[in-house]
Amino acid sequence: MSDCKLKVALQKSGKLSEGSFELLNKCSFKLRPSKNHYLIETKELNSSFLLIRDDDIPGFVDSEVSDIGIVGENGVFEYILDNPKHNLEVITKLGFAHCRLSIAVPQDGQIKSIQDLHGKTIATSYPASLRDFLAKHNVQAKILVMHGSVELAPKIAIADAICDLVSTGATLKENKLVELEVIFESEAVIIGNKNCSAEVKEKINELIFRLQSVIEAKDSKYIMLHIDKSQVGKLQEILPGCESPTVLYLHGSEDKVAVHVVSKEGIFWDTISKLKSIGATSILVLPIEKMMS
Fold first, then answer.
1. How far apart are CA 86 and CA 221, in angstroms?
2. pLDDT digit string (tens) for 193-203?
3. Are 111 and 180 contacting, i.e. CB atoms less than 8 angstroms apart?
4. Which terminus of the chain has fewer Cβ atoms in its 10 Å neighbourhood, N or C?
5. What is the pTM of this model?
6. Count of domains forming the chain
């Protein structure tokens, strides 16, 4: 492995930051963010982590201040629209920080369709994304750029609608807003610079391998049980995400076997009931910390 340093940009605080640190620490980085620290050095993969605003991450990676960054797809899309000559690429999705960029309007208002936005004012923190969407739908509207509390704009009568990130929808409901249109779905991704060196790319590939091993194991379970050997074939019907099971004959029994299997789908109480219905006993379900394909 190369001795070159891997420079990673992370959001300093927020949900994206929490998910990033949790995922990286499961890959043995042991990062401990501090309120007044903006740089964390670690011997793991000879890496340094720069803690900055999420809006700044695409620019840091594009200008090669950082080799890679963890950021929401919404931030990448916004940056790319503003910087068409960029050198960014999305390397992999990370499966957390799911949200959507949506246009929302007052629930008791007159705006019922995208075309009703014509001539209206829309408040947003994502002007490039909104502008691109409106252009594709031939809608001319005024865009009011805000950098926080966007959901308040219709309530204080400075905008007719908003375009903002939505996760659970609770904030919209609190402000009596409803989603009119989802512009795109977003989640956390790793972005890199297309011009990185071969040495850096080697480090990035190793990090991606570790991250994907943790992600793949997240919803997987290792299942052990005893069952009549004639019922083994039914396991894949009950556990559609499972791999080929390992079957071991039990000492002193000609009919019953021990089955070990990895299932890539969630195991819930109804799944356990189905396993019991085909005669499974001694059922043990264990979490998997890491899984290498």
1. 41
2. 999 999 999 99
3. yes
4. C
5. 0.81
6. 3
